[in-house]
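Run log // design_07
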C-alpha cells in the first residue's frame, strides 16, 4: 500500500478547492452579466462634472446612426467625443429601458402602457441625488406643463418619462423642455432630456432628430467643452434587428476626444457611472453590480 506524502496531500487539497471555487466563479459571472457588463469590484476613477445632461433618443441601432449621412451632428459629437462601440439596451419594447437607466431595474414593466403615477418607491437616480443634497431635473418636450402626469398629449408620451412613476421624486422636477435654462450654470447636477415622439426619431426621420439635437442642445455641447460638464446622447433600444446594440456618445471637457472603447456596456453601466460621477455612494438596483464606463476620460 503506497505511503501518503505531503506533496500528495497538497495536490488533493488544490483539487478540492478548484472543484468548489470554479462553479462559484461561473455562477457569479453569470449574475454579473445579467445585471450589467463588467464588475463593480474593479471600480474605476470617474470624473466629477459639474453638470451632466443625458438625452434619450428612440429605436435606432448603432449602424443606423454611426456613419449615417443623415446624422452629421451626432457623428461629429462621436468623432470629437467618446463613442461606445458596444453599448446595448436591456430589453424590448421602449419603456422598460427607460426604467432601467433611471432606477437600475425595469420595475416589472414589460410593455409601453401608461404606468400608475406615484406607484413606485424604489431607489432611483433622482431620489439618490436629492438624498445626497445634489440637484435633479428632467426636461420633457411637449409636456403640457411642469409636473404634469398626463399619459399622452400630442407628441408627448409618458412612457418615455419614468420619473413620474416614483413617489420619491417630486413631480415639479419634471419640467417642460421650454424650461431648459439658457444659463447652463443653472442646470441641475444631473438632468435627463426627453424629446417628443418626433424629435426622438420614433415617429420622424434620423435627420429630424439629428437636427433637433443640434438646434436645441448644440449651444450646451459647445459650453461643456470648457466648463467641466458632460453631454450624453444614447438610445432606449435598437430596431430589434441588431442584438439591441445602440449608439451612445459622451461629449465634454472630461472626455478623451476620439476614444472608442469596445468594452460592452448597457443602461445599468451608464446609471452606475452617473451615480459615481455625482459622488452619491449609493447605487440603484442592478447598477450596484455593474461597472463604471472607462477608457473615455482624460
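design_07 sequence
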Amino acid at each position: 500500500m503506497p505511503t501518503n506524502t505531503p506533496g500528495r496531500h497538497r495536490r488533493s487539497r488544490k483539487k478540492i478547492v478548484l472543484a468548489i471555487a470554479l462553479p462559484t466563479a461561473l455562477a457569479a459571472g453569470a449574475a454579473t452579466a445579467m445585471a450589467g457588463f463588467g464588475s463593480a469590484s474593479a471600480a474605476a476613477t470617474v470624473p466629477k462634472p459639474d453638470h451632466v445632461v443625458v438625452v434619450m433618443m428612440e429605436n435606432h441601432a448603432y449602424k443606423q446612426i454611426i456613419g449615417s449621412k443623415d446624422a452629421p451632428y451626432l457623428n461629429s459629437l462621436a468623432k470629437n467625443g467618446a463613442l461606445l462601440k458596444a453599448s446595448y439596451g436591456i430589453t424590448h419594447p421602449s419603456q422598460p429601458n427607460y426604467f432601467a437607466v433611471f432606477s437600475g431595474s425595469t420595475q416589472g414593466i414589460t410593455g409601453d402602457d401608461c404606468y400608475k403615477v406615484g406607484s413606485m418607491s424604489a431607489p432611483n437616480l433622482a431620489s439618490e441625488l436629492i438624498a445626497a443634497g445634489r440637484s435633479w431635473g428632467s426636461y420633457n418636450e411637449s409636456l403640457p406643463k411642469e409636473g404634469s402626469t398626463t399619459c399622452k398629449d400630442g407628441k408627448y408620451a409618458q412612457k418615455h418619462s419614468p420619473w413620474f412613476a416614483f413617489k420619491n421624486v417630486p413631480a415639479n422636477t419634471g419640467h417642460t423642455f421650454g424650461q431648459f435654462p439658457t444659463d447652463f450654470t443653472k442646470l441641475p447636477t444631473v438632468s435627463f432630456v426627453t424629446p417628443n415622439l418626433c424629435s426622438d426619431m420614433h415617429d420622424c426621420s434620423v435627420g429630424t432628430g439629428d437636427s433637433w439635437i443640434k438646434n436645441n442642445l448644440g449651444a450646451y455641447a459647445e459650453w461643456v467643452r470648457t466648463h467641466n460638464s458632460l453631454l450624453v446622447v444614447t438610445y432606449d433600444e435598437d430596431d430589434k434587428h441588431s442584438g439591441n446594440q445602440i449608439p451612445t456618445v459622451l461629449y465634454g471637457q472630461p472626455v478623451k476626444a476620439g476614444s472608442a472603447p469596445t468594452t460592452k456596456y448597457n443602461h445599468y453601466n451608464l446609471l452606475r457611472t452617473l451615480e459615481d460621477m455625482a459622488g452619491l455612494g449609493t447605487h440603484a438596483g442592478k447598477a450596484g453590480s455593474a461597472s463604471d464606463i472607462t477608457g473615455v476620460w482624460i
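The first strand starts at residue 51 and ends at 57.
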